[in-house]
Prior knowledge:
Distance between the termini: 29 Å
Shape: flat
Radius of gyration: 15 Å
Oligomer: single chain
Order of helices and strands: HH
Largest sheet: none
Amino acid sequence: LCGQRMGTVSDEEILKLEEQGRILVIAPSQKVTVGRLERDMNKLGDLYWLGYNDTLNRLDSLRSYLGGSST
């Protein structure tokens, strides 16, 4: 996508490309409520663990997308 054109890509286009297997979407499984200048360590910790657990849950699909083994 980066080299194809400048501008934004619609949610529909992203879903279509993901369904086609052309891209792998990596996004939080829950809405992020942490601001850019967040100082609340509990919120930051929760966001860290959300990302950590989301990554663990998606490892097989990530490996498959990248062409590696799932073990």
